[in-house]
Amino acid sequence: MLKSIGREKRSQAYTINKALNLFFTGKYRMRGYQIVVSTRKNKKYDVYKGGKYVVSFGDKRYQHYKDSTMLKHYSNLDHLDKVRLKNFRTRFGGMDRTDKTKALYWSWHYLW
């Protein structure tokens, strides 16, 4: 029982550190990848790995199902419409969603 309490506290400390890092830097790191608010025209987020640009994803002019990045910069564009979510998943479901150098991976996992 003591081990589980210690593990829980470590988990809480990790979550707090992650939130503080996000608050002070405006950046979110995920397994070597860093998601930042994009400076590119009409793009929501940019992804970097090791300081090098990988891909931009999302369009500022359109809604998405739910912004599940820790930044939540575009959560005002959430529509939470299950029918639109299903249509998006049907439309792009047959494509490769495992390649982290493609915008579809990031949109699928963090916006839809």
How would you characterize this protein structure?
The model has no long low-confidence stretch (mean pLDDT 84). Strands 1-2-3-4 form a 4-stranded antiparallel sheet. It is globular, with a radius of gyration of 16 Å. It has one domain (2-110). It has helices at 2-25, 82-92, 103-110, and strands at 27-30, 33-37, 43-49, 52-59. The chain is α+β, with helices and mostly antiparallel strands and 112 residues long. The protein has 3 helices and 4 strands; from the N terminus they run αββββαα. The longest helix is centred in the first third of the chain and has 24 residues, at 2-25.
Topology:
Elements: H1 2-25, E1 27-30, E2 33-37, E3 43-49, E4 52-59, H2 82-92, H3 103-110
Antiparallel strand pairs: 1-2, 2-3, 3-4
Net shape: globular
Radius of gyration based on Cα positions: 16 Å
- Compute the number of structural domains: 1
Counting helices, strands and paired strands, the structural category is alpha+beta
Order of helices and strands: HEEEEHH
Number of helices: 3
Tally of strands: 4
Q: State the helical fraction.
A: 25-40%
Portion in beta strands: 15-25%
Question: Quick one: biggest sheet?
Answer: 4 strands, antiparallel
Q: Order of strands in the sheet with the most strands?
A: 1-2-3-4
Q: Please, what is the average pLDDT?
A: 84
Distance between the termini: 38 Å
Low-confidence stretches at least 5 residues in length (pLDDT < 50)?
none
